[in-house]
Amino acid sequence: MKILIAYSSKTGNTRKLAEAIHLALPNADLCPMGSVPNRDIYDLVFAGFWVEAENACEDAKACLKKLSGKPVALFATLGAYPDSQHAANSLKAAAAEIPNANVVDHFICQGRIDPLMIEWMEQLPADDENAPTDARRQLWKDAESHPDDNDLKAVADWAEAVLEKQQATA
Fold this sequence. Notes:
Layout: E1 3-7, H1 13-24, E2 29-32, E3 44-50, H2 58-64, E4 71-78, H3 85-96, E5 102-110, H4 115-122, H5 134-143, H6 149-169
Parallel strand pairs: 1-2, 1-3, 3-4, 4-5
Helix pairs in contact: 1-6
């Protein structure tokens, strides 16, 4: 089975997940989404992105649009908690970017937030919906250490399970 691990990473969080998947699946091809080779030769694509505005980031969306009908396992990082509605909505929106989507599974974990984003939010007026609150500052603090070793093990285990399931149905 020919496997591609394609990812988009702004701060390195999603790249870390992609590399952990590649360690678990060393025969897979690994590349940034902007330099994905001929997608037609792959039997399974692991597509990773960072969440932007409750969807995949722009370069990931462009890549996802080219995966029509292909079995795709989505993986992502976001600043919010992975069990949040925001995370669920983001995965759903990303899957919707794939024409004739065949999303076989997904994985999402928290990732460190871009310090420039935090700096921008710190400047917002108190009545802005994105303005800092105690809960939001706690979220930022919680996100600082992710993805951590547990996240990397979890994504590697997940990728192995996805591959095993795909091989069983092939």
